[in-house]
Design brief:
Blueprint lengths: L2 H6 L8 H11 L2 H8 L10 H10 L1 H15 L7 H4 L22 H22 L16 H9 L19
Length: 172
């Protein structure tokens, strides 16, 4: 397959980043874009020029916006697993597949999606820990495992207090 045919079958071919962002903002607005994409350039100082400037510098954010454009705004069918591995501008849409009307999105749907992602992330983290619950250690002065072990193994009767220098006994 030649590069010319490949790029003719990509909906992002010939669409500048500024045009893409302008179309998305005109249709959805900055609030919806931030709610779905969670990229700060759509919340902090939301304007097209600053968003484009940020997206040009930040590859992960640009790709996230391009995927949103292709699959939410242009409503192309989801990419195959091999195409999904490629950046959005390198993906090929099979002949005969065309886009549809933009997806109808709302802030309520974005919040539901966000909650669903939070639950899914928590389940994933739990599965990675082998089902064990996790509670991070609190940084409370001198109470960490290394200090506890040092003070229990230390033959001297002095204990570490938060007022003294934490490195004073490091050679004992």
């Amino acid at each position: 397959m030649s590069d010319e045919i490949k790029y003719k079958n990509n909906p992002l071919n010939g669409v500048s980043l500024k045009t893409l962002v302008t179309e998305l903002v005109a249709h959805y607005g900055f609030d919806i874009l931030f709610a779905y994409l969670n990229i700060n350039c759509f919340k902090t100082n939301p304007n097209i020029d600053s968003s484009v400037k940020f997206l040009k510098k930040t590859q992960w954010a640009r790709e996230k916006v391009e995927v949103f454009y292709m699959y939410q705004f242009k409503s192309y069918p989801r990419a195959s697993s091999t195409q999904f591995q490629l950046p959005p501008r390198d993906r090929v849409v099979p002949d005969g597949q065309v886009g549809a009307d933009p997806a109808v999105l709302s802030l309520e749907d974005a919040e539901r999606l966000k909650q669903k992602r939070i639950v899914k992330a928590a389940e994933y983290k739990k599965s990675q820990r082998g089902g064990k619950s996790y509670s991070p250690r609190k940084a409370t002065g001198s109470n960490n495992n290394r200090d506890d072990k040092r003070s229990s193994d230390d033959s001297s009767s002095s204990t570490y207090s938060p007022d003294e220098d934490p490195w004073a006994h490091w050679r004992k």
